[in-house]
Amino acid sequence: MGHKLQQSHHHHSVAVKVNEQMGTKRGYTFIQSNRAWLPKFLLLWVMVMAFMSTRIYKNMDDDNKVRRREVLSSMCDQRARMLQDQFSVSVNHVHALAILVSTFHYYKNPSAIDQETFAEYTARTAFERPLLSGVAYAERVVLSERERFERQHGWTIKTMQREPSPIRDEYAPVIFSQETVSYIESLDMMSGEEDQENILRARATGKAVLTSPFRLLGSHHLGVVLTFPVYKSKLPPRPTVEERIDATAGYLGGAFDVESLVENLLGQLAGNQAILVNVYDITNSSDPLIMYGHQNQDGDLALLHESKLDFGDPFRKHQMICRYLQKAPTSWTALTTAFLFSVICLLVGYILYGAAIHIVKVEDDFHEMQELKVRAEAADVAKSQFLATVSHEIRTPMNGILGMLALLLDTELSSTQRDYAQTAQVCGKALIALINEVLDRAKIEAGKLELEAVPFDLRSILDDVLSLFSEKSRNKGIELGVFVSDKVPETVMGDPGRFRQIITNLVGNSVKFTERGHIFVKVQLAENTKPIVVSKAETCLNGGSDEGVKLSGARQFKTLSGYEAADERNSWDSFKHLVADEELGYDASVNMTVSDEASTSVTLMVSVEDTGIGIPLIAQDRVFAPFMQADSSTSRNYGGTGIGLSISKCLVELMGGHISFISRPQVGSTFSFTAVFGRSKKASLCDKKKSNAEDLPSGFRGLKALLVDGKPVRAALTRYHLKRLGILVEVASSVKIAASACGKNGSSCGSKIQPDIILVEKDSWLSAEDGGSSLQMLDCKQNGHIFKLPKMILLATNVTNAELEKAKAAGFADTVIMKPMRASMVAACLQQVLGIGKKRQPGKDILNGSSVLRSLLCGKKILVVDDNLINRRVAAGALKKFGAAVECAESGKAALKLLQLPHCFDACFMDIQMPEMDGFEATRQIRMMESRENEQMNGDIDEGSTGKCEWHVPILAMTADVIHATYDKCLKCGMDGYVSKPFEEENLYQAVAKFFKAKPISDTQ
Question: What pLDDT, on the 0 to 100 scale, is given for residue 870?
């Protein structure tokens, strides 16, 4: 040990010296080496910043101009769009009025429209035409009909100057008019040059046409007239111009006061004073006619925006031109920003210059701090290495003690001697566990703890952990149960040892701090759960307002044991939804495998709930701190180092998850964590299913069971274990209901099966009014058919001899299924009760395991290499126990001599840490020696020969510290695997089964 510590200290000292030399050889920094250039750098900095400030001002000013142009464009387009939309609405209403005149004046005989009707209708519907100053209808009159027309209406057709119209081929006198334009009645629209052109185009095209801008009669405002043709008969589908002219009966016109129209529109918009608007008729592009606005040069003439206007007349083209009323203001924001930027840059330059002046002194301080930092890091590494080395050196004699105790327990001892030896073995294992925890913490702090990625059965690990605490939970009368969702894959990829360590720590703490109630382990997919946060004072107080103070005897909660729990999500109200999902998808695991083939990982949520003493509020913030207990009294009453939860938190984070808890003093705690596992490959999954099929017998598939349990959560857990064996289960909440379910005439209370077995919880049986005798008095005939009475089995956490005798008298089987339930244990009990398969005898598993190892190792010559005499004796004794011939070597050099080719050894167990030559170096030299010999031997064999001779002795690493001897490092140096000291049958079998074939047991005896 002293040699190893000196060697470690020597390497550490060398590392520190190298680091110090690297620090002292460091050259000057850039600032130190260019100190004379600092003023020039400052001047260059000022010039560059001045240039950048100018660029910033220009860019911001350009951006303001672009935004000003965009705002003008948006405002102009908005006004043009609104004017155009309102104009189109008015055009549509005028068109509708033209159709109305055509329908009711010409298609009706006699006409349904006269001047009074037209005036009243147009006055009432004037709100639909807000842009029109008035509408009027002019009838088409030819010269031959003029005299008759004038006699009919009692007035003479007049021109626009209100003089009698001269003789012409055709007239268009106004016969109907809105009251606002009644002054144009009897005026001939054909006498006006603009109106005549409008009328001729309207009847030729059949569409709405507009005049050019002119001064309207009455208002003298600029405006335009819209004209629609009115037909006296229906037109063919595709009429010609001549057909349109012949069918024309008159013309409906509307006057638009453009100036008033645009004024009203601009008055409705916000910011109407910000821009100037001009509307033009640009039909003649060389001579545009202004319709609204002034030709003055006011406003910002540098920025104009043109928006097209479409008033529905394809012959006429209109345009709106907008400009700002005020010129662009000075961009004070750009000026201020550029100025502030320059000031800030000058300040930064000054600060940098001042910092550079003092950089030499700072660099000296920095070098000094670097040296101190290197020394501190080296000290931390030395601490971790020292702790790991000392822990290993402590484990080595402890493994010798445990190994010798194991060999001692295999001999014939008196009961007192066996008790002493077993007590010493338990204490030694506890010390080894503590050393492992301290070593794990050191590895975690050093960042050297790595996780395996191997396929494993999560459900089997949970069963194994529960079996570790089964005796303690029974002695305390605690319900200890586990439930795994069917949606959780049968096999996952991960580190089974570290997962077992987390579960063992959490369940161990729960068993330690719980005196009544239950401990409930639940596993499900993380996406099916709600996030859990660490409970604070509010959570702890709110949960127990009026129920938390009541004892379990006064109130029964819907939990596993009936005691109140800290987290209500594991109560039946929440748990039943998960159970319902399991029942709907019985083969959910297969479905999940098929549906999630593309998924390479699965995130699981594991919760451990207990009804123990809880965690005080003041201690909840330091629960995961290493070497911390809730308080001193807890440490004295319950013991422990306080490192388990800290290690569990680190392991959970390494698994890509998060751990949290909810705790309420004197109620209990619920620790929950998530972990990310890989999905096992198909080949591994098939192999694992085969192994599971061997562990859990298939002879129970198809059996029907009736479970009597008044607590639904506990019933769901029992049903989960029975379903793993393939048993169909019906649940009854009381003995009375169960008796009626199996009563006469086949009547049942919802039960659809005739049970082969009846399982009854002890408290449900004891609380029955008739003591459970109703189950004993079942008739063996139902509907005339004779059936076999089902076996009745009692389920109990603990049972006294008096209760057992009473149960037998009530008709229960001699075998009682004891809690906590595990699938393998339930299967063994059912085999014994039902006589299915081979009955499991006490100690048979160990005997079978020893027999298998004996069949593998018997007659094999094995070399054990270890520098510690006690370890050599322990290893030799363990291997000789199984019939192997063992030879020992005390160093790697001695092993090389014994393994010189040819040799007669079948395997070699090699210690890793040995003086002069460690196990890794010895293995490398052995492999090199074998490789040279194999090349020489295979080179002498003819090419036509089918067989080749190779030397390769299996080398298994022996170590008391499996963390240092990682599997990858063993493989890298040529080893075939490793076994931990002291030898355990399961680990030893897994190691040697890869290289040796079993012989018949009869031959080995």
Answer: 84
Q: Which uninterrupted H or E stretch holds 651?
A: helix 644-654
CA 70 to mean position of chain CA atoms = 44
Give the tokens for residue 800.
């006294």
Which is it for the CA torsion 755, 759, 765, 771, positive or negative? positive
Geometric angle at alpha carbon 391, from 390 and 395, rounded to 5°: 115
pLDDT less than 50: residues of the chain = 1-25, 531-554, 586-595, 632, 634-635, 683-694, 744-751, 779-781, 838-848, 964-965, 1001-1005
pLDDT of residue 658: 93
Phi, psi angles (nearest 5°) of residue 608: -120, 110
Q: What is the pLDDT of residue 95?
A: 87
Query: Could you tell me the CA-to-CA distances from 969 to 243, 740, 849 in Å, in that order?
Result: 103, 65, 29
Place of tokens 């194991």: 406
Distance CA 572, CA 421 (A): 46
d(CA 355, CA 486): 66
Select from 528, 540, 638 the least CA-distant residue to 578. 528
Distances (CA, A) of 998 to 854, 977, 1002: 8, 19, 11
- State the distance between the two ends of the chain, measured CA to CA, in whole angstroms: 42
Question: Shortest CA distance to 171 belongs to which of 194, 192, 151, 188?
Answer: 188
Question: What three-state secondary structure class fits 94?
Answer: helix
Burial 403-417, CB ≥16 within 10 A → b, else e = bbbbbbeeeeeeeee
Nearest partner of 87 among 53, 45, 132, judged by Cα:
132
Model pLDDT, residue 951: 87
Please give the structure tokens belonging to residue 329: 């203001």
pTM, two decimals, is 0.54
CA proximity to 608, closest of 459, 505, 712, 531? 505
Query: Contact, 866 vs 958, CB < 8 A?
Result: yes
Nearest CA to 225 out of 133, 138, 161, 143 is that of: 133
The SS3 of residue 108 is coil
Tokens 């660099």 -> residue: 363
Cα separation of 915 and 920, whole Å? 12
**Phi, psi at residue 225, to the nearest 5°?**
-115, 130
Helices (H), 869-977: 869-881, 892-898, 919-939, 967-972
For the chain, percent helix, then strand, then coil, each to nearest 5? 50, 15, 35
pLDDT tens for each residue of 655-700: 999 999 999 898 899 999 999 999 876 544 444 444 443 457 777 8
Among the listed residues 88, 97, 134, the one whose alpha carbon sits nearest the alpha carbon of residue 257:
134
Contact assessment for residue 393 and residue 387, using Cβ atoms and an 8 Å cutoff? no
Q: What pLDDT score does 598 carry?
A: 52
Angle at 575 between CA 569 and CA 578, to 5 degrees: 120
Q: What pLDDT was estimated at residue 675?
A: 94
Cα(983)–Cα(405) distance, integer angstroms: 12
Query: According to the model, what pLDDT value does residue 746 have?
Result: 44
Whether the bond into 110 is cis, omega within 30 of 0: yes
354-361, long-range: CB < 8 A, 24+ apart: 356/31, 356/35, 356/38, 357/38, 359/29, 359/31, 359/32, 360/32, 360/35
Query: What CA–CA distance (Å, rounded) separates 100 from 131?
Result: 20
Give the pLDDT confidence score for residue 553 in this predicted structure.
44
Long-range pairs of 431-434 with CB within 8 A, sequence gap ≥ 24 = 431/398, 432/395, 432/398, 432/399, 432/402, 434/641
Condensed to tens digits (0 to 9), the pLDDT of residues 512-545 reads: 889 898 999 999 988 766 544 444 333 333 333 3
Is 959 in a helix, a strand, or coil? strand
Query: What is the tens place of the pLDDT at every residue in 786-806?
Result: 556 788 888 888 888 888 888
Strands 791-796 and 757-761: parallel
